[in-house]
Amino acid sequence: MSRPITTSPVVTAQPLLPPGTSRVLDTDVGAVIGALTLVVVGLWARHGGVSSLGGSATDVFTSLASLTGLLASEAGILGLILVTRTPKLERRYGLDRLFNWHRLLGELMAIFLVAHIVTGVEAWADPTGIVSAIKDLTGREPYMALTTVGTAMVLIVTVTSLKIFREKLTYETWWFIHLLSYVGLALSFSHQIVLGTDFMNDTVARWFWVGLHVGVVAWIAWGRWGTLARSLARPLRVEAVRHEASGVVSLTLGGSNLRRHRAASGQFYYLRELSPGRWWSNNPFSLSAEPTTSGLRFTIKDRGDASRAFTRITEGTRVAIEGPYGVCTPDLVGDDKVLLVAGGVGIGPIVSFLEQLRPENEPVVLYRAHAQAEVAHADELEHLASSRGGRFHVLVGARTTLNVPDPFAADVLLKTIPDMAERVVIVAGPESMIKAVQRGARRAGVPFEQIHAERAWW
Amino acid sequence: MTDQHKPSLLRQVAPAAILTAAGVAFVSMLDNPTGTNTVSLDNAAAEDQATPVAPTTVTPTTVTPTSEVEQVTTTLAPLPTTTVAPAPTDAPVVESTGACDGDLVTSPTALFRWGGIQLQVHFTRTNAICDVEVLQYPNDRSKSIAINERALPVYNSEAVSANSAGISAVSGATDSWEAYTAALQAVIDSRS
């Protein structure tokens, strides 16, 4: 079987070993979340939270303020654990899913936080009134000035992460705002200990709570900042830059570190160009070739944002990498027949995926592009597909110029690929195309669990 | 496809079982006060001072917080009498029960979650309560001061007219009410 080495000057390139599998089960994750919730709610109930619900209005508000505060903290802690990018969790669920859950937990935290503020002020307003309560809780009470600032930071982070605002911000702006959440959570911590009675009057509970937070901070320090430090300490170099299509460039990063590196096709990395003015920008890109000891190839399209700088990178530039991440790898397909669907620069992960497939997979590749000039890696795909006994189809043109209204409709797919229903479908590209393929494949009889979408990382 | 071997039932259930057991064990280790507000009397002080003292001439001694005090309220150990009411000789006007010419008794400090309340109870010769003064109440936060300055005078006059600890609570000051009545009851008990 011939394996074309398109970019690497070293002929003795060995494919990298795939990353190890994670033994974490859904039930393990459920057990941790369940036990933490049990402890948090149990702590509240045991300190009289439940019995207070039968008391005066003030008792009820006090009790609810303490419960919502505790739950906001729990959601925050769980959300932070998800972004530590702990390999065991990442290998099991994939970074995009972890990020999704992180966002949901962040929204949940914001809801609890607002409920906590409302019930807390309401409780404190008896008998001195709302105005006095707000004055107390924004400054007059110990640590509450810090807490007010911290809460404002956390809420700013949550609001800027809402879809309508997130889309208006560049990745970097949003990310730096996001860093405020660490500060915000730290500032709000002390009021939890001194203001409520849950931790003030119960030494065991207090040490548990402090320990939990210290533990999570240590976890973040190790997982997140440790990864960053290791990545900066051992950067790769840009060994080759190739123009692939209009506005599309492929970079091959190499270095001696790769010999012991483990990665698989379909995965992605965060790349950080180590040059003045660019080092702080960290962007995800998918592998566009099978990762080997001689290099990692990424295909990058100039989309006018941070990706533009990467398309202008020169050979020899040092690039720090974090990764690999992602679970959409060829071990998903085993010996099954495969349909690969790429849209735009989604072709990158599809090329790398195809490279690790075998003739048993009988791969069919559908490549959707808006213009002929944007088609990248076409020769490579043609060669890879035919050498594996598969087929390669390119569909170029704006939707209105096509002779079918929906190129991914079930009947169109079945006409091109009669054995569609037996295939594992791997789709990479823009969100709208992923949706169209998922819909068409489901209608063509492909079981839900046989369709895998790779979010667009570039 | 990915999972070549399905994990055993034990492997799936064990973490949940262990963590739940640990969680339950932990929660049961926690303090479980019967209500949100627990009142305890500083008994060491009570033994010293609950004995009747000669009227008018004796001023109450200051109560020093004991170690027990600090254990109960971690950050709110009662302060020594910081808000001493006017001297007992500034005789309040008391109707029907006659002059306040009986014993002057200082209560133990009733400790509760916001601090401590200590009373000085003045009796007539016929053993009726004719005046109550608060020697100490939680004053380390503005809210405590606001609540107590409003409620305690009401409790004082209620105590005199009821001549017992059976007084009703002011809304928003139930924690103080519990501590106040506990302190007052301790004084009454010490004399019966």
Protein described:
The complex is a heterodimer of chains A (458) and B (192). Chain A is an alpha/beta fold. Helices cover 49% and strands 15% of the residues of chain A. Chain A has 16 helices and 11 strands. Chain A has a 6-stranded antiparallel β-sheet with strand order 4-3-6-1-2-5. Chain A has a 5-stranded parallel β-sheet with strand order 9-8-7-10-11, sandwiched between helices. Chain B has helices at residues 9-29, 43-49, 67-72, 142-162, 174-191; strands at residues 40-41, 104-106, 110-112, 115-123, 129-136. Residues 45-97 of chain B have low confidence and may be disordered. At the A-B interface, helix 1, helix 3, helix 6 and helix 11 of A face helix 1 and helix 4 of B.
Describe the structure using short key phrases:
heterodimer; A: 458 residues; alpha/beta; Elongation Factor Tu (Ef-tu), domain 3; Rossmann fold; six-stranded antiparallel beta sheet; five-stranded parallel beta sheet; 16 helices; B: 192 residues; alpha+beta; five-stranded antiparallel beta sheet; 13% strand
Instruction: State the distance separating the first and last CA atoms of chain A.
Output: 30 Å
| Domain count of chain B | 1
Please tell me the overall pLDDT of chain A.
Answer: 89
DSSP summary: helix tally of chain A: 16
Strand order of the largest sheet of chain A: 4-3-6-1-2-5
Number of strands of chain A: 11
Shape call of chain A: elongated
Largest sheet of chain A: 6 strands, antiparallel
Low-confidence stretches of chain B: 45-97
Based on secondary structure, the structural category of chain B is: alpha+beta
Secondary-structure element sequence of chain B?
HEHHEEEEHH
Uncertain stretches of chain A: none
From the N-terminal CA to the C-terminal CA of chain B, the straight-line distance is 83 Å
Shape of chain B: elongated
Largest sheet of chain B: 5 strands, antiparallel
Tell me the structural class of chain A: alpha/beta
Number of strands of chain B: 5
Strand content of chain B: 5-15%
